[in-house]
Specification:
Two copies of one chain form a homodimer. Chain A is an alpha+beta fold. Chain A has helices spanning about 5-15, 20-40, 45-55, 75-85, 100-115, 120-140, 145-150, 150-170, 175-185, 200-220, 235-240, 245-250, 270-285, 300-305, 315-320, 320-330, 340-345, 350-355, 400-415, 415-425, 435-440; strands at about 65, 70, 290-300, 355-360, 370-375, 380-385. The longest helix of chain A is centred in the middle third of the chain and has 22 residues, at about 200-220. Chain A is globular and about 70 Å long. The interface between A and B is large, with 60 and 60 residues.
Amino acid sequence: MDITRQIADHVVSSRMQMVPADVRHEACRALLNYVGCAIGGAHEDAVEIALRALNPYSGNRTSVILGRRDRVDPITASLINGIAAHVHDFDDTTPHNLSHTTCPVASAIISHASQQAVDGSEFLHAFLLGFEAASQIANAIVPGHYEAGWHITSTVGAIGAAVAVGRLRALTAEKMTNAIGIAATQAAGLRVVFGSMAKGFNPGRAAQNGYVAAVLADAGFTGGNDPLGGPRGFLEVLASTRDAGAIAERPPTEFELRHNAYKPFPCGLVMHAAIDACIQLHLEARIDPDEIRSVRLRVAPIVLDLCNKRVIHSGLEGRFSIYHAAAVGLVRGKAGLAEFTDQAVNESRIRAVRERVTVEPDADISHDAATVEITRLDGCSLSKSVAHAIGSLQRPLSDRALEQKFRDQAEPRLGGQRAGALLDLCWALERAGNAGQIAELAAPA
Amino acid sequence: MDITRQIADHVVSSRMQMVPADVRHEACRALLNYVGCAIGGAHEDAVEIALRALNPYSGNRTSVILGRRDRVDPITASLINGIAAHVHDFDDTTPHNLSHTTCPVASAIISHASQQAVDGSEFLHAFLLGFEAASQIANAIVPGHYEAGWHITSTVGAIGAAVAVGRLRALTAEKMTNAIGIAATQAAGLRVVFGSMAKGFNPGRAAQNGYVAAVLADAGFTGGNDPLGGPRGFLEVLASTRDAGAIAERPPTEFELRHNAYKPFPCGLVMHAAIDACIQLHLEARIDPDEIRSVRLRVAPIVLDLCNKRVIHSGLEGRFSIYHAAAVGLVRGKAGLAEFTDQAVNESRIRAVRERVTVEPDADISHDAATVEITRLDGCSLSKSVAHAIGSLQRPLSDRALEQKFRDQAEPRLGGQRAGALLDLCWALERAGNAGQIAELAAPA
């Protein structure tokens, strides 16, 4: 059983008619959310610095950086768009494997489509094939891979990006196999860099690695035999737990896009239930922050594993601090982009509440659930439990909520009219003559 | 103990006067050997295809591809030069960790020096700092990392390249730490692709990854806290056996360059002892290949682990076939570039002998030793044992032998005069005003 070739065969032979309508709609939701996040993140420090550093090395400036007027070659654009779309930790997630798969896949193909006309339906199809391939592989290495310290978004993302760009370049099954191999041998990304700019760099580089893999394979570059499932292949080398059967035996009627979640808050997904509970408490009880003596959270153990940053100084660190996340929920009753800035992290009222937060991990709690209990100075206690966080698969963001999230990020850059046109195009992508129009509309006029 | 910062501090504060003369000379040997291999490999398929595929995306064409007239931007050049220098499996190796460390490090800095004047002594110093940093890390993850399936040359090579380019860009210790982190989070390369073009791609991409890491860090991009030694850092995630003490406690007077070996044969290092024995038998006994009934090899188990390709069709596969390697030694009495072409692999006399080779792994034999025993059709047996292969640390190639190896590769491309001038420049690098002259001379007139 050669699972690399199996994936390649499927990707090459898939027809859009085989994809159910609800999955196509979900692909549109994922792309719309992606485009909003990329525009929203386009002026963050990590993006500014990466662009300034790499701009002198750019080739022909054919491809848009979403949300900016700058153009660079499509390989460089894959990286920069990927950093921008992930920098706020606001992009989508498949909760089962904790991968933000859209970011690397979409960053690669939007950069490609920005330089060369691509039919909208073809684009959507390539995206979902890349998303599905990466997700299948991610599911095969859950949970050992991520627990060991790999940034799963970028390791499997490089392969998803190669598949999607490869599909747009109409690779044969043999070349697609090579593209997957060249991507697999570049698979990288460490969680140890979380909290630094390199976190967003990981999926950006994955987009770029996948792009390069597809370009090389297209030209005849080879990439080994069953680089995914073979002896010492990707699965064996990068994952202590693995289940190749999750790939080999998966019915073609299953789609991981159905299990994709969209974040209401721009920070670590596993904190969302606690934030949700804190916001609800804020709205219901109208607590004065100065009256809070202590805050007790009960959460899944992974919350502390991922988001245990207690002493923080930057907004970037705040995205991985359960203490900060709870504090902004309680103090401000919201947790949007403004709550994860350097300013918010250093605001004295938020810091004061943050310092009163204690967290109890509980293995019986799932990572989309949480309980918060606050005790006031007068000794009175209040608590709130959330069984499934807003934005989870059980309480998904509606299309309207996604549109609002999109507008919140895109309108400040593009203005309302252009943002609206871009929104319409994302929804109507399947009937669009050229998906590259997304990139054109996403560049401020 | 923050080993990332420790390495960064050392790299930033090192002075050339601290480097003993024998180590500087060894650095020249490594670079000279590298330049010869890059020129020798510059027209292999893997290089032609990668260049054709990526050329359209190149930025300003400032940097030479050694052995060619083409120029590309320095980041692309790092990749292409890296592929070329490794494609023949003819570059150097530190036997203790099986890493070909010069290739990624030198590919990055020669591409940098090709676009911007760099003092020869600074260049040599940066090279050896990158080589040492990568080697230290490699030694800390021997043997688990490579055994698991990682291409150690590229995983540690990315970090070595970042260090070397970072040094040439005069990064501060803080920025150097970030460069190491950005390189570490890109560390990748799987042995499963050995036998395909992606093998050479791995160190090339490592060169490029390190280059990008240094450029980004220079501009202010951040890369995490102790990405090498920290919890879930590079050492923890990529190696089942690790010894951070090998880095932390290493005296600054030790240099891994003293333990670097240069290959006489363009193929897997662990086959060299068997080839050596077969060539000696050929030269001493003048055996008619048609008279060979069987060939028995006794070798270290790692030989079969790495080079067990029995059915082969291409020269690339032949580089990892102990059967082919023994056959060319016995049939032709040599194992140069001409013995690892598609033509040689498919030559009937060589194939006939190859099919008669059996290999017995013996855990008591080191990987630079081997015994070959042939039985002729007349029943007579002959055998030869080699305790240390030619080119091993115990029987190193002399400066003259390295020069001959260089000329064999460079003269067909550059002509004798230019090749000679380039050779002289490599030896005199420490006194050269501009190391970029290496690249200029390595481009055919």
